[in-house]
Amino acid sequence: MSKIKARIKVQFPMVLLTLISIIQALALELLWGKVVASDYLFGGGIAAVVSWGMVTVCFLGIIQIWVLYSTMVMGVIWQPLIRDSVFPFIIGVQEFLMVSLVDAQFNPLWLFVLASIFISANWMSHNSLRRARQDPDNAQFFNNIEPARLKDFIPLIGIVAALTLMGILGLLTNNQNWLPLLAIVLTNLILLLQILASRRLWRRVLALPGEEEN
What is the pTM of this model? Predict the structure, then answer.
């Protein structure tokens, strides 16, 4: 039984990375189809700016999910559960829904879907890393890293609360000007910061000093 568990732990990262790469490729294909088929993106005006902002959020979100999974899979190992192989499909459905809601008229439901993706991705990564911390093979990676506490989730809670609040305001006011612009600027900025944070995590995985990184 121990040999089987060891084999699963070694082979599962390749299976997971293959699965998430396929799902992200499908999400990118759907996004590209949306851009090509949407004439309103090239019509100018506030609606086009908002729509392009939603497209960039979708693109950065897809990239961030891929970077998060690939860095985690190549950086640490953990004993997988069946939900680890199911969760990429859940995130994939959320991404497909997020892309499908990009339209000429801003739909506040898009913000709720985006908030759910933040929750799903963070729950997945925290759960996996918590189990990875229990594996002695990851001791060097978690050296000098304290276990997550409630205060460490305050940024996530703030992001989800802000997106949810803007979504509710959008439904109540049907604002198509300043509210969508504020939402896309905020979400693009958040995703860029998260990609930079993933860059630091990647550097830690490789154990390279910052000045040597290309």
Answer: 0.87
Neighbour-count burial of 188, counting CB atoms closer than 10 A to its CB (0-12 exposed, 13-18 middle, 19+ buried): middle
Question: Tens digit of pLDDT for each residue in 71-85?
Answer: 888 778 888 888 888
Residue pair 58/102 in contact (Cβ under 8 Å)? The answer is yes
pLDDT tens digit sequence for 141-196: 777 778 888 888 899 999 999 999 999 999 999 888 889 999 999 999 999 998 88
The CA–CA distances, whole Å, from 180 to 44, 108, 110, 118 equal 16, 8, 10, 18
Nearest alpha-carbon partner for 65 in 109, 12, 124: 124
Would you give the distance in Å from CA 78 to the centre of its chain?
20
Residues 162 and 160: their CA atoms lie apart, in Å, by 5
Q: What is the 3-state secondary structure (H, E, C) of the chain?
A: CHHHHHHHHHHHHHHHHHHHHHHHHHHHHHHHHHHHHCHHHHCCHHHHHHHHHHHHHHHHHHHHHHHHHHHHHHHCCCCCCHHHHHHHHHHHHHHHHHHHCCCCCCCCHHHHHHHHHHHHHHHHHHHHHHHHHCCHHHCCCCCCCCCCCHHHHHHHHHHHHHHHHHHHHHHHHCCCCHHHHHHHHHHHHHHHHHHHHHHHHHHHHHCCCHHHCC
85-95 core/surface letters (b: 16 or more CB in 10 A; e: else)? eebbeebbebb
